[in-house]
Amino acid sequence: MLDVRRLILLRDLAHLGTIAAVAQAHAYTPSAVSQQLAALQREAGTRLLERTGRRVGLTSTATALVQHTEVILAALEAADATVAAARTGLRGRVRIGAFPSAVRTLLPAALVGLARDHPALDLMISELDPVGMPAALRSRRLDVALLHDYDIAPTPPDPALDSTALLEETVFLAVPSDAAIGNIAAGHASPDPISGARDAQWIIGSPGTLCHSVALHACQLAGFTPAVRHHADDFTAMLALVAAGQGVALIPQLAIAQPSPQVRLLPLAMRRRTRVAYRRGAGGHPAVVACVAALRDATTAFLD
């Protein structure tokens, strides 16, 4: 019988790419991970790993095992959900991951509702960039996560996760109110604001973040590479920099609280899409069901 804990390490190697990254995710040493994977290979009786230069890759058999592992883990999550549903009342820790603009706008009301309806739940929030949340869910550092992507750059499905749609919002190009940027003259709209800002200075997220890659992709779709002047990962900071005449930025609707008179917000055809994600098989867990319901109620109240 193959050891499920070792299969999880193999699955994580497929996602993370290096033994060092797997070791960090599990708080193991790289040598401990290598030993466990070697033991799994002996259990399987066939080669699972192969070296390509300095990297360790998976054989076709190992890749098939990873797919089976996802099915096994989803079944275990479903079994845990069945047991949890048989208990009386909700209790225990629930770890929720969210991106900053959701933490400021949607999470407070959702937490109030969860605390009122399920006072025995121990709720813990972690603020993360969406890029890092799938790995946090897979490694059980999170139980529920608010993820988002953009319609111009959809995120491929993750075989370890399920999700339910929560929110679709407009994305704006924020420009200084007195700016005459290309065909975005002060007081006038543009049929294609991003294209009109091809000669502007840009404020975008840090490299490696979703906001960074989406801003670059949006500009590339408009036929240019943006001149990046500043990197900022907080939309409030981005809006302050725009108000100070430091450039233009892409800002989703959820991040706009009280617009500054020094900033004009030009609506784009682009949409940001937020969903509630959890491990595959956990959708019926009462705590996950409660979190999804509370987040939906908070989103409805925020938009009204």
Describe this structure in words.
The protein is an alpha/beta fold and 304 residues long. The protein folds into two domains: 4-82, Arc Repressor Mutant, subunit A (Orthogonal Bundle), CATH 1.10.10.10; 91-304, D-Maltodextrin-Binding Protein, domain 2. It has eleven helices and ten strands. It has helices at residues 4-16, 19-26, 30-44, 60-86, 100-105, 107-117, 133-138, 193-196, 210-221, 235-243, 286-303; strands at residues 49-52, 55-58, 92-98, 121-127, 144-150, 161-176, 201-204, 227-231, 249-252, 263-279. The strands form three sheets. Strands 4-3-5-10-6-9 form a six-stranded mixed β-sheet. The chain has a two-stranded antiparallel sheet with strand order 1-2. A two-stranded parallel sheet has the order 7-8. A hairpin with a 2-residue loop joins strand 1 and strand 2 (55-58). Helix 1 (4-16) crosses helix 4 and helix 2 packs across helix 3 (30-44). The chain is globular and about 70 Å long. It starts with a helix and ends with a helix. Mean pLDDT is 92; it is low at 185-189. GO terms for molecular function: DNA binding; DNA-binding transcription factor activity. Pfam families: HTH_1, LysR_substrate. Belongs to the LysR transcriptional regulatory family.
